[in-house]
Design a protein that fits this description.
The structure is a single chain. This protein has 20 helices and 4 strands. The chain is mainly alpha-helical and about 550 residues long. Strands 1-2 form a two-stranded antiparallel ribbon. The protein has a two-stranded antiparallel sheet with strand order 3-4.
Length: about 550
């Protein structure tokens, strides 16, 4: 490992006190890849957890009788990860990247262990929040360490490795999730519980590897920790996300909803005031927002995060609820996304490293993501899988080109002394967007699904043939408790769809698809907004080699 032109060992660099104005540590490609091996194992934990859980979430929600409340499982993780992410940036600037990264892994493992023994959907959501406290540091700290060791122009090459890790998790996750979710019991526990328990030995391995290979230079930066800002941010974000998930139940203008709006807005105003008072010690330093590239990167991370996470939570439901796939089959069906993502990520990373240009890749990536949502918005209950795969190819290619270029844009003009805080901040905006997307898209889906299914059932029951089908013993048992006396439906558990005659299930499938079409169309509108920002606001600059 080297500082300036003098070669030194990693430990010597780590213990040496480099000047604040010193340039970045220059490492050989082999040395960077060695460091990356430690980072990627930690990141694999977070990436695998997301893909494993998403593929098995329907099984988990059905077992815990909380299908319509499943958004809590996703949003709880994202909320705590979102709030913790900026703190990780500050803590790593003060104490060094490695010890803080290790703490993130240990927190993640503790949350995973608790999730494995959850007894209700809300208890699982609470334990997922603990997981999120650790997961919030895994991605942002990895990107920060890469930024520490490379020039802006080189980053695309190495960020491609990280995206490839996520792609690998996208392949392994659905398979592992499908295998475990498909087991009624395993060693005395429900199969899906091993999805979380598996993280514990993986975390132990990650800790061992990181202790051996993750030796990076650390130049201590004096920061005060902005605990007041973190608390105000929690007060601002949590009520707004709660109403995004519960609005359909409470009523969007009910008393509890208005209280949530007021509390959230108050928290956000306090957060802005605290950040201004804290100055350089702020959780999200105001000076960063004076950097145009950072502002644009933060906005794009937020907007693209809405579309990305909203789609990633809705599409598996289409495959499992509408197409009747098992969690494993649904995971395997997403392979076109993975293939496109890996291919485009590696290609774009090399092109950026060679040319120093990134805007074209950014615009085309967001455009491809938007196009995928348009394809998904035209899905029907009887759409062939090859048509779904077309949308997946566009989505995978779009994310492969867009996500690494947005991060590169946000980091491109940030001083190295602020790299930890800045990288954490842009990941904060992406997580925030993801939280909003997951909560709002699922809330919109189940708000519409009940009404649209009821409408189709009303029409179907007008036909004597349909009534006779539903009165058959097997169908009657499956529908017991689903059809309420007032004509509405109970959608908290979707297991009944597996037992229904396809003819009796058709109104349910059509109602779900109709609601999903609106959700995907909303996502396309969000993607189009990001496309306009990227095309007309992002400058076509060349990345520096310094």
């Amino acid at each position: 490992m080297s500082g300036g032109n003098d070669k030194t060992s990693p430990d010597a660099v780590q213990s040496g006190a480099a000047g604040a104005s010193a340039g970045p540590a220059r490492l050989e490609h082999r040395q960077i890849v060695t460091v990356l091996s430690g980072l990627m194992l930690g990141m694999f934990l977070a990436a695998l957890d997301q893909t494993v859980v998403s593929s098995a979430l329907r099984t988990i929600a059905d077992d815990l009788h909380g299908l319509t409340a499943q958004a809590w499982v996703t949003t709880a993780y994202l909320v705590t990860g979102t709030i913790a992410t900026p703190l990780y940036g500050k803590l790593s600037d003060i104490y060094g990247r490695r010890p803080v990264y290790l703490c993130a892994i240990l927190l993640f493992a503790a949350g995973s262990l608790l999730c494995g023994f959850a007894t209700s959907i809300y208890e699982l959501a609470a334990f997922r929040a603990v997981q999120g406290l650790g997961g919030g540091g895994l991605m942002s700290l990895a990107m920060t360490i890469i930024a520490d060791l490379t020039s802006p122009r080189e980053r695309g090459r190495y960020q491609g490795y990280i995206t490839a890790v996520f792609a690998g998790a996208s392949i392994a996750g659905p398979l592992v999730g499908g295998i475990f979710a498909g087991q009624a019991t395993l060693l005395g526990l429900a199969g899906w519980r091993w999805i979380f328990l598996l993280n514990v030995p993986l975390a132990a391995l990650a800790v061992v590897v990181i202790l051996r290979v993750l030796h990076v230079p650390h130049q201590p930066v004096r920061h005060r920790l902005d605990y007041g800002g973190a608390l105000a941010l929690a007060v601002g974000i949590v009520p707004l996300l709660v109403i995004a998930e519960q609005g359909r139940t409470w009523g969007w203008l009910s008393g509890p909803a208005l209280a949530a709006y007021g509390t959230g807005l108050t928290g956000l105003v306090l957060f802005v005031l605290i950040e201004r008072r804290m100055g350089d010690a702020a959780l999200l330093p105001p000076r960063l927002f004076r950097i145009r590239a950072f502002r644009l990167g933060a906005v794009l991370h937020f907007v693209v995060g809405i579309a990305m996470f909203g789609t990633m939570t809705t599409l598996p439901l289409y495959l499992q609820l509408v197409k009747g796939m098992s969690p494993m089959a649904a995971g395997l069906a997403t392979l076109p996304t993975v293939v496109a993502n890996v291919s485009v990520t590696l290609l774009v990373g090399r092109l950026m490293s060679r040319t120093g240009k990134f805007k074209t890749h950014l615009v085309l990536g967001i455009g491809s993501l938007t196009l995928s949502l348009v394809v998904f918005a035209t899905l029907r209950a009887d759409s062939p899988l090859w048509y779904v795969a077309i949308g997946m190819l566009f989505m995978g290619a779009g994310l492969g080109a867009a996500m690494q270029t947005i991060t590169t844009l946000a980091q491109s003009e940030v001083p190295r002394g602020d790299m930890g805080a800045a990288t954490a901040a842009v990941n904060f905006f992406r997580s925030n967007g993801g939280t909003v997307g997951a909560a709002a898209f699922l809330s919109l889906l189940f708000s519409l699904a009940g009404t649209r299914i009821t409408e189709r059932l009303t029409t179907a029951f007008a036909e004597p043939a349909f009534r006779r089908i539903t009165e058959e013993p097997g169908n009657a048992r499956a529908l017991d408790g689903v059809l309420r006396a007032d004509g509405t439906v109970d959608l908290r558990d979707s297991a009944f769809l597996r037992a229904l005659d396809p003819r009796a299930a058709q109104p349910f499938l059509e109602g779900y698809v109709s609601a999903m079409q609106v959700v995907f169309l909303t996502g396309a509108a969000v993607g189009l907004t990001a496309f306009a920002i990227a095309a007309w606001r992002v400058p076509d600059t060349r990345l520096s080699d310094d």
